[in-house]
Amino acid sequence: MNTSILNIEIQEFINSNLNTDIASLLLKGIPFDDVNPKDIVEQIEAKKSCEKKLPTWFNAKNIYYPNRLNIEQTSSEVTAEYKANLVIGKSLIDLTGGFGVDAYFFSKRTETTIYCEINTELSQIVKHNYKALNVSNIECFNENGIDALKCIDKEFDWIYIDPSRRDDTKKKVFLLSDCTPNVKTFQGLFVKYAKHIMIKTSPLLDIKATKTDLKHVKTLHVIAVNNEVKELLWILERNSNLDFKIRTTNILKFSKQVFEFLFDEESNAKVNYSEPLTYLYEPNAALLKAGAFNSIGNQLKISKLHKHSHLYTSDQLLDFPGRRFKIEKTIAFNKKVFAKEGINKANVTTRNFPLSVSDIRKKLKIKDGGNVYLFFTTNETNDKIIIMCSKI
C-alpha cells in the first residue's frame, strides 16, 4: 500500500481523470515521481468500477482501492445491505473479508464485527478505508479467518463466509469443494462457534446438490438485482434439520419482488395447465433459479402452459414475481400465419422452444424493439405457438 497515493494532488488527479481514456492518459504522461503510473491507473480504474456498485466508497474522500479483480469479486452495496438486514445479534465475524463491503454493512447491525483477511495489503487497505468512512466497531485481523476463529475461541452470534471462487491458477470455480476455504470441511467448527452461519455462494451453484453438502440449513436466499441472479445465501442454524425455506428476492429500482416456498414441497405441489388465457406471466430470474415452478402456480392459483415452459396464465390480473403481459392473440408457429399479422418489429422471448431468438428473428424477419412482445413456446398438447402480448 503506497500511502503517497493519498496525497491531495494525486487524489485530485485521480478524480479529474475518471472518464479519461487510459491509453491517452499514459501516452500524455502522469506527472508524479513518487508513485508508479500503473498504480495511479489502477486507482482510476478501480474507483470508476465503484461508481454504481459501491457509491459509499466512491463518494468518500481518501479511499484507497485495490486492483479491479477485488472490486469485481466484492458484494455490491445493494446485496451487502440485504445480507446485513438478515442479521440480528451483537457480534459477527467475517472470515473472508475481502474489500470489506459486507463487514461494513454488518457493522451497522451489530455492536462488534470482526473482519478477517489473509492478504496483508488488502487488509491494510480496508483498515485504512474504515477510518476514512468513520467506522469504529470493526476489528481487523490480517490472518486466515479459520485460524482467527480458533484463536479467538469464543462464540459469536453470526459467522459470515464468502469462500474464494478462484483456484490456484485464478480460474473461476463454483462448487463448494473447489472454493477456499472448503465450507463442507468446516461445518462442525462453524456451528461450534456460532448459532447462525451465513454462507455466500455462486449463483451458478446447483441448489439440490448443495442441499446434500450442507447440514443445518434453515433458509436459502436467492438474490437477484434487476433480474440478474447475484448471490445464493445459505443460512445455517445450529440444530436445524428440518425442511428449509427458499426466499427469492428480485431487487428492482423502486421495489422488490419476493416469493417464498419450502424446498421439499416443490416436488409435491400440484399445478394446473391451461391454454393461454387473458394474462401471461414470466417468472423473474431469482424464482427460476430457485426452481419454484410448481409452488408459484400452486400458491397463486394460476395455470401453467406446459410442464417445461415455465410460463403462467390467468383470467384475472394478479401480482406476480416477474413480468406481466396482456395476451392480445395466440397463433400457431407458422411462417405464413405469422406473416398475416404484419409484425416486423417486436421483443422476442423463447421458453421451451426449439429455435433460438436469433434464429426466429432471421426466419420471420423480425427486428428488435417496439411495444409488441412475442413469446415462442410450447403448449400443453406440445404444439408450438406464438403468444402476442402487450406489457403491463
From TrEMBL:
Single Gene Ontology BP annotation: methylation
Molecular function (Gene Ontology), one example: methyltransferase activity
Pfam families linked: PG_1098_Fer (PF22013), Thump_like (PF18096)
All copies of domain PG-1098 ferredoxin-like, residue ranges: 279-321
Alphabetized InterPro entries for the sequence: PG_1098_Fer, Thump-like
Highest rank taxon of the organism: Bacteria
Limits of the THUMP-like domain: 322-391
The entry's keywords: Methyltransferase, Transferase
Membrane-traversing stretches: none
Keyword Phosphoprotein found: no
Protein name, entry field: Class I SAM-dependent methyltransferase
Originating organism: Winogradskyella luteola
